[in-house]
Design goal:
Blueprint (H helix, E strand, L loop, with lengths): L29 E2 L4 H9 L5 E6 L4 H16 L5 E6 L4 H6 L7 E6 L2 E6 L5 H17 L12 H11 L3 H14 L4 H16 L4 H10 L4 H13 L3 H14 L2 H15 L7 H14 L1
Parallel strand pairs: 1-3, 2-3
Antiparallel strand pairs: 2-4, 4-5
């Protein structure tokens, strides 16, 4: 990596403004400085990903994040390297890495820097990020992609779906979310199985005819939206429910809002159709 011309400039710490936290307990990771960044860590990234966290004792969030990364590095058993930059002591390195906020993390893969975080993440979120980093590195021929082990409740739910027992699948996903409330697969799985339950046995053609004949009928419109989502017509399904938001109030509007949020969970949040529908929902509600 070629360092920017302003490599020697000091990093501005004025935005932190917090008293230093106690860091007397040794912190995990290898210390990065101006000398070893290019001499040691960049070549190392040709063998395995080098995850670098820029931290400061003035940022308790960054210290906690560094300790969580240390736990994950131990669990990774050498599949990636954790390095740290103390921006108070190494402002020139922080500047070279284009650090603008703390905590700030980037990963070197094949000597190429890739920023991956500019805000505090908890351990669960960091675990997901590391999984993506290892997968990306493997795609570039460095290391091996992690093998994701399914949760036991997820296996139970999939088996239940295979035998057509949607109620059992729903119960399994709810059990998973009770144990791990933020599990992304649990959330998606629950939304999927609930959609299967609602559409099981419905005559799609009749449902759509009823929706045309009864434009103000809440049940007919919500069933039609489910069918449209099942058929992959996300835009139309979302529009149908958003229209109901403008028609109904009180408990009915709340019911439609909750259904929309359930359906949003089925799709990548970065999908433009979801972003557009979420914006329309917010505008309609507020």
């Amino acid at each position: 990596m070629t360092m920017p011309p302003n490599f020697g400039n000091a990093y501005d710490l004025s935005g932190l403004g917090k008293p230093p936290v106690d860091t007397s307990t040794p912190l995990p990771g290898l210390e990065v400085n101006a000398a070893n960044l290019t001499a040691e860590f960049l070549p190392m990234s040709a063998q395995k990903p080098v995850v670098v966290l820029c931290w400061s004792a003035r940022s308790p969030e960054s210290v906690e994040m560094l300790r969580n990364l240390g736990k994950l590095a131990l669990a990774g058993q050498g599949s990636w390297v954790l390095a740290r930059v103390n921006i108070d002591e190494q402002p020139q390195v922080a500047q070279a890495l284009q650090t603008r906020t703390i905590p700030y993390g980037l990963v070197f893969i094949a000597e190429q820097p890739i920023p991956f975080v500019e805000q505090a993440l908890n351990e669960t979120q960091l675990r997901e990020v590391i999984t993506k980093i290892l997968t990306l590195a493997a795609q570039q021929g460095i290391g091996e992609a992690p093998v994701e082990e399914a949760e036991p409740e997820e296996d139970e739910a999939i088996e239940a779906i295979d035998r057509g027992d949607f109620a059992a699948a729903e119960a399994a996903y709810r059990a998973l979310l009770l144990r791990k409330p933020n599990d992304p697969y649990g959330k998606i799985g629950l939304a999927q199985v609930q959609l299967l339950m609602r559409t099981d046995g419905l005559d799609a053609a009749k449902v759509m005819q009823d929706a045309i004949a009864k434009p103000d009928d809440l049940l007919a419109q919500m069933q039609c939206a489910d069918i449209e989502i099942m058929q992959g017509d996300l835009d139309q399904g979302f529009r149908r429910l958003l229209n109901l938001i403008t028609i109904y109030a009180g408990d009915e509007r709340k019911q439609v809002k909750e259904r929309l949020l359930e359906l949003f969970a089925l799709v990548d949040p970065a999908d433009p159709r979801v972003i557009k529908a979420r914006t329309s929902l917010a505008n309609a509600l507020f």
